[in-house]
Design a protein that fits this description.
six-stranded antiparallel sheet; single chain; 296 residues; alpha+beta; binds pyridoxal-5'-phosphate; nine-stranded mixed sheet; D-amino Acid Aminotransferase, Chain A, domain 1
């Protein structure tokens, strides 16, 4: 694409997400961001029924594409959607990044819905836009704990509650952020009803206890994070031990450091958890952030 044709906000519609586009259309195409693309009868509009992924692209390079697409497939399976065509999605993601004007950090959101009522054809689109300024979050977050109301056994006993699926029903995840703001904080750490630290509404918990780095087991009902996998790879290369382990909020408060990790914001150190102040290692935070951004 000619660099003068590049856009500041890119929308790619993907009618061929299931492998073949209806009526022999292209598998995906660039679409106008400022004209209507969705029908009001799409199940995502009427029920929030769909799944999504948010990827980061740093200096024009998408990070962890395969893990994100595999997680999308996992989330889709959890809500009984068929598996998307990962080759089509990979090409469509590349097209979205190529069509965007060059920026240091890009947020690329991929949505897959149950589609328009009565059609049995999922709707899929990719939206790429310049990332917001995450510098304040990367400097540190005041975090409060909030009860998620689900036990760590919920995935096994009540899989229909979709714990650990990245569904488009994120109203609760957004509501808790407003609750945090009302309480003078910026972020939330969900706690299970049986008393364990889980994850943030859009992030994975990483905790340093002595020389070990720990995250919440996926079996407890958290989203399997792509960022924590990158962070663990980098930490292991530095000779550190990493593991999945359940921790109580009290243990996080006494830790040597804790972070909320995600593909866009990278590594955000928790400066305060409720009333407790936590140590912050800026150099380690930067190294973990670089690993998540694919820079190391
Ligand atoms: N947990 C939840 C609930 C999320 O929504 C996200 C990402 O948005 C994450 C964890 C972090 O996932 P990743 O590291 O793959 O961005």
């Amino acid at each position: 694409m000619n660099s003068s044709d590049r856009r500041s906000d890119v929308l790619v519609m993907v009618p061929g997400v299931m492998g073949s586009a209806p009526d022999g259309a292209e598998a995906f195409h660039l679409a106008a961001i400022d004209s209507p693309q969705l029908l009001v009868t799409d199940f995502v509009a009427t029920r929030g029924d769909g799944v999504f992924e948010t990827l980061g692209a740093f200096d024009g390079t998408l990070v962890n594409v395969r893990p994100h697409l595999e997680r999308l497939t996992r989330s889709a399976a959890m809500i009984d959607l068929p598996a998307p065509d990962l080759e089509v999605l990979t090409a469509a993601l590349d097209a979205a990044v190529a069509a965007h004007e060059p920026v240091r950090e890009l947020t690329v959101r991929l949505s897959l819905t149950r589609g328009v009522e009565g059609t049995d054809e999922p709707t899929c689109w990719i939206h790429a836009r310049t990332a917001e300024d995450y510098a304040p979050a990367r400097a540190g977050l005041r975090v409060i704990t909030l009860d998620r109301g689900l036990s760590t056994t919920a995935p096994a006993t009540s899989p229909w509650l979709l714990a650990g699926a990245k569904t488009l029903s994120y109203a609760v995840n957004m509501a808790v952020l407003r609750e945090a703001q009302r309480r003078g904080a910026e972020e939330v750490l969900f706690v299970s009803s049986d008393g364990y630290a889980l994850e943030g509404p859009t992030s994975t918990l990483l905790v340093q206890r002595e020389d070990r780095f720990l995250t919440t087991p996926v079996s407890a009902g958290v989203l399997p994070g792509t960022s924590v996998t990158s962070a663990f790879d980098a930490l292991r290369a530095m000779g550190r031990q990493c593991a999945e382990e359940l921790l109580t909020p009290a243990q996080v408060k006494e830790s040597q450091g804790a972070w909320l990790l995600s593909s866009g914001r990278l590594a955000c150190p928790i400066t305060h958890l409720d009333e407790a102040e936590l140590p912050v290692d800026r150099e380690l935070t930067a190294r973990i952030g670089d690993a998540i951004a694919g820079r190391s």
